[in-house]
């Protein structure tokens, strides 16, 4: 009887953590794409970009958003890594027997997560030490650290797209054959938008 209660609590705990991983991941992907659209305001000129940045400051959205994102990211990391030793052993066992792309996807998700964490911390530090956000400051920062933002664009989008892929397949919402092409299209669109945005900032920073 005691074993059944313990097993029941373990199953419920795993379910809650799976849901925490799901919803925190969806929130972070939504933020990533929304942030990309906000930054892409520079494509319409410095005035729209500065106006949007000032709006976020005026209503304290930037000040509350950064701690909130940090908290949700911490929840996501905890939920994902809770069974890391077990998943690590399963990964290597599957890798030896099955050379399946989904197995490698999990491994690269782990690697990109570490890379994203480091790059995001550097990005936040660079932004906070040169507040407030303006088009001119952003352009200057990207000229100096273009490698950081180029890496963050590709790593972030890879992690987000394959994270969504794994969740959709895991929960059985959409088959991998249907969701794969859709996510690839979104990835190409976001990466393309990001590359154009970086190019505009680089040109602005070098001309200014």
Keywords, separated by commas or semicolons:
208 residues, 3 helical TM bundles of succinate and fumarate reductases
Folded structure, characterized:
With 208 residues, the chain is an all-alpha fold. It has one domain: Fumarate reductase/succinate dehydrogenase, transmembrane subunit (3 helical TM bundles of succinate and fumarate reductases). The protein contains eight helices and no strands. The protein has helices at 2-39, 46-58, 61-81, 84-97, 101-128, 135-144, 146-171, 176-207. Helix 1 crosses helix 3 (61-81) and helix 1 (2-39) crosses helix 7 (146-171). The protein is globular. Residues 1-7 have low confidence and may be disordered.
Structure summary:
This protein has helices at 2-39, 46-58, 61-81, 84-97, 101-128, 135-144, 146-171, 176-207. The protein has 208 residues and is mostly helical. The protein has one domain (2-207): 3 helical TM bundles of succinate and fumarate reductases, CATH 1.20.1300.10.
């Amino acid at each position: 009887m005691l074993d059944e209660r313990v097993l029941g609590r373990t199953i419920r705990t795993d379910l809650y953590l799976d849901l925490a991983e799901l919803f925190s991941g969806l929130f972070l992907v939504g933020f990533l794409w929304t942030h990309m659209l906000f930054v892409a305001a520079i494509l319409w000129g410095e005035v729209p970009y500065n106006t949007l940045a000032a709006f976020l400051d005026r209503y304290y959205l930037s000040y509350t958003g950064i701690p909130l994102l940090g908290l949700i990211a911490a929840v996501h990391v905890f939920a994902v890594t809770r069974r890391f030793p077990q998943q690590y052993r399963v990964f290597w066992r599957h890798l030896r027997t099955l050379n399946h792309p989904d197995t490698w996807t999990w491994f690269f998700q782990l690697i990109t997560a570490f890379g994203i964490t480091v790059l995001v911390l550097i990005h936040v530090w660079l932004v906070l030490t040169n507040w407030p956000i303006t088009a001119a400051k952003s352009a200057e920062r990207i000229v100096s650290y273009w490698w950081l933002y180029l890496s963050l664009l590709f790593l972030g989008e890879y992690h987000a797209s394959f994270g969504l892929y794994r969740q959709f397949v895991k929960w059985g919402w959409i088959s991998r054959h249907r969701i794969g092409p859709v996510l690839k299209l979104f990835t190409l669109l976001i990466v393309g938008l990001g590359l154009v945005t970086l190019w505009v900032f680089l040109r602005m920073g070098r001309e200014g």
